[in-house]
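Practice problem 4.
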């Protein structure tokens, strides 16, 4: 940030004066040294006569030397020289008020800005002013001998300026002195006044368009037009509000103004020059998303770009739409404790609760509770409960619960639960996904759904097996070792019905050693095949029932890609309701454990399964 203070640097002249004084001093000391030799001879000669008073003789000889050295320091003042060293603030005889401190300064012809710097250095304070109200390059003559700072500045600037103190700063303002009641009557609280003016490039004097002009304490802002013009209407909340102007590739500039009076300002922005690098996006990623570009206006995105460094906190926000609310166009820079958005809201973040009738958009983090009728869009992290009627979209991490009807998206780490009727997405899954389709780039968590895709998971494999009921089975596993989805397709060529099975299941792997492990899966398959009747087999295809299987399989991994497995199978066969027993019954082999229940509609059997899986 570029604060336009008058005393920044500019010590070169004073340092030059310091070393010039020291040079003259050491030159005179050389003369004094020769005098010392002469006086020493006289002293030792006199000691033989005045042996009892030799000490007094030495002291008497040193007095002229001290006076000579002091005379050398005070001889021939330079063009900028302090003849009286000011005492520190609070010292005896020096008042604590910067305007009432006394300074001594002589300068034949120096710029006004440098003169103010020298006065501030001797008074142990700093000047603050808008450079547009002073001609810092104008040459002035200074001859101050023990005068107060107030008198010194009045002599340099003349009438038309006022001064106020804030801590160790003396603020120079254009206008009548505040101490004069007749010239500056008291301003009523909440009185409206207007600030207007132009913002220009300090180097080229060209107008600066789309610069953000704002007052932080009142959360009011406006963008400059193509001519660099702005107009901002304020209320009196403090006697000296600070008007800040921000623009990308320019240094921020603060202007201190009088409250309660219409004013026209000229603000010069200093360009920030730097090396040309690859493009760097300094705005919030929310504005760069497809949803952000369509739900936020171009002016709001420009504001966010200009004010990427400025954020503040607020208690409560109530808004109709992102640009109409209690925080106005600066709503995207405020983190709220509570936020109520009738249609939609736009803020920097939420600490406790945010409710949106249609949507909520937050640039940074959201904590505790966020509810929206359609959409929640968060540029930072979510810690807590997030619920939307259609979609939750988080560009950071999620630690908590995401609940929506259509989709949940976490672009970083999910350490919680994503629950939706359709789609869940996470970059790094360390929690649980429950939905029709689940996506994860990397997963150490659990995905429960019809389809679960893990880009860098190690459970993508194809398994081939054989069992007495389903015959030859091909399985496709997706997910990770904690829990994966299984798609099955089976055909039994050894049965007279030639049944065809298709189905879905879930499995989980347990590691028992470096190569040995246990894999448990639960599957359900629908059976289609030929009908069996008393007269024989009919060739027409019929639905033969449903087969559910539980298979705990012992696995042995050979190499990196091949795994052998074998284990018992516990199956349940269920007939289709309202179908005749017999013609629509799947032929199940007799076993000692064979039994039926449910009126003969369901049967239980056991068997063995063995096979090979390939990663």
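Answer key:
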């Amino acid at each position: 940030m570029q604060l336009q203070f008058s005393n920044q640097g500019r010590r070169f002249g004073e340092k030059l004066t310091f070393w010039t004084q020291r040079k003259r001093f050491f030159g005179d000391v050389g003369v004094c040294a020769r005098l010392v030799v002469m006086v020493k001879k006289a002293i030792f000669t006199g000691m033989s006569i005045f042996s009892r008073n030799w000490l007094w003789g030495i002291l008497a000889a040193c007095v002229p030397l001290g006076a000579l050295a002091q005379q050398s320091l005070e001889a021939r003042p330079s063009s900028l020289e302090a003849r009286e060293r000011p005492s520190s603030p609070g010292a005896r005889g020096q008042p604590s008020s910067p305007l009432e401190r006394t300074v001594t300064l002589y300068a034949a012809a120096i710029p006004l800005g440098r003169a103010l710097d020298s006065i501030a250095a001797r008074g142990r304070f700093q000047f603050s002013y808008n450079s547009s109200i002073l001609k810092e390059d104008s040459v002035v003559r200074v001859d101050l001998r023990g005068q107060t700072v107030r008198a010194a500045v009045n002599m340099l600037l003349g009438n038309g300026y006022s001064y106020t103190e804030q801590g160790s700063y003396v603020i120079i303002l254009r206008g009548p002195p505040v101490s004069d009641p007749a010239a500056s009557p008291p301003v009523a609280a909440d009185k409206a006044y207007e600030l207007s003016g132009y913002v220009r490039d300090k180097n080229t004097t060209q107008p600066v368009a789309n610069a953000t002009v704002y007052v932080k304490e009142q959360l009011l802002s406006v963008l400059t037009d193509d001519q660099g013009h702005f107009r901002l209407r304020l209320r009196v909340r403090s006697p000296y509000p600070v008007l800040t102007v921000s623009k990308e590739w320019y240094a921020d500039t603060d202007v201190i103004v009088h409250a309660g009076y219409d004013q026209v300002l000229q603000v010069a922005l200093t360009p920030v020059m730097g090396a040309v690098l690859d493009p760097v996006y300094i705005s919030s990623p929310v504005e760069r998303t497809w949803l952000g570009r369509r739900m936020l206006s171009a002016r709001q995105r420009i504001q966010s770009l200009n004010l990427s460094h400025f954020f503040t906190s607020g208690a409560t926000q109530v808004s109709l739409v992102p640009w109409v609310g209690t925080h106005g166009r600066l709503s995207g820079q405020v983190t709220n404790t509570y936020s109520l958005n009738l249609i939609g809201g736009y803020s920097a973040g939420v600490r406790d609760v945010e409710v949106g009738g249609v949507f909520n958009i937050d640039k940074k983090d959201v904590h505790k509770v966020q509810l929206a009728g359609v959409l929640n869009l968060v540029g930072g992290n979510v810690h807590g409960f997030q619920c939307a009627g259609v979609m939750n979209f988080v560009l950071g991490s999620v630690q908590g619960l995401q609940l929506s009807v259509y989709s949940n998206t976490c672009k970083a780490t999910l350490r919680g639960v994503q629950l939706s009727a359709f789609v869940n997405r996470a970059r790094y899954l360390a929690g649980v996904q429950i939905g029709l389709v689940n996506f994860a780039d990397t997963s150490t968590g659990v995905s429960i759904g019809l389809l679960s895709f893990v880009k860098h998971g190690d459970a993508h494999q194809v398994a081939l097996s054989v069992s007495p009921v389903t015959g030859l089975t091909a399985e496709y596993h997706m997910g990770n070792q904690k829990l994966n989805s299984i798609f099955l397709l089976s055909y039994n060529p050894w049965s007279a019905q030639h049944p065809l099975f298709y189905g879905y299941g879930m499995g989980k792997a347990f590691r028992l050693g470096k190569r040995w492990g246990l894999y448990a899966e639960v599957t359900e398959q629908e059976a289609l095949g030929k009908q069996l009747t008393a007269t024989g087999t009919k060739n027409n295809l019929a639905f033969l029932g449903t087969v559910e299987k539980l298979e705990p399989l012992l696995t042995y991994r050979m190499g990196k890609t091949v795994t052998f497995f074998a284990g018992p199978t516990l199956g349940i066969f269920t007939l289709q309701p309202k179908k005749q027993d017999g013609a629509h019954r799947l032929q199940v082999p007799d076993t000692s454990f064979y039994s039926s229940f449910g009126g003969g509609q369901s049967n239980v059997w056991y068997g063995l399964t063995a096979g090979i899986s390939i990663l």
